[in-house]
């Protein structure tokens, strides 16, 4: 089993910045990708950014150029630097770690609230 612990959420003003962090602990050998999802009230959970082995990354269109995902493979951590925040970025952000397509290697953190408001 793998445990994910997120930190760094909170309140930011429009145009501000926040950095989310996620640490994985436990049997992490199966993990090849780490990612961030978010879920706003009344909406489905969506992929925000993902980084996989080989340092490949993907961002959803709405955050390209504003968010940066980074991973420390030694420490099994992943961070999401969020700049130029907008009110529509308000959501619960979830860390995910696992191997794409695997049902047994797919782990979620409890989520951290990000609120963007003046």
Describe this structure in words.
With 118 residues, the protein is an all-beta fold. Helices cover 0% and strands 54% of the residues. The protein is built from no helices and eleven strands. A hairpin with a 3-residue loop joins strand 5 (46-52) and strand 6.
Distance between the termini: 40 Å
> SS-based structural class?
mainly beta
- Report the helical percentage: under 10%
> N-to-C SSE series?
EEEEEEEEEEE
Kindly state the mean pLDDT as a whole number? 95
Q: Work out the number of β strands.
A: 11
Q: Write down the Rg.
A: 14 Å
Which word captures the global form? globular
Relative strand content: over 45%
Q: Helical element count?
A: 0
Major sheet details? 7 strands, mixed
Spans of 5+ residues with little confidence (pLDDT < 50)? none
Task: Provide a brief overview of the structure.
The chain has 118 residues and is mainly β. The protein has no helices and 11 strands. Helix content is 0%, strand content 54%.
What secondary-structure arrangement, pairings included, does this model have?
Layout: E1 2-7, E2 10-12, E3 18-26, E4 33-39, E5 46-52, E6 56-59, E7 67-72, E8 77-82, E9 91-98, E10 106-108, E11 112-116
Parallel strand pairs: 2-11
Antiparallel strand pairs: 1-3, 3-8, 4-5, 4-9, 5-6, 7-8, 9-10, 9-11
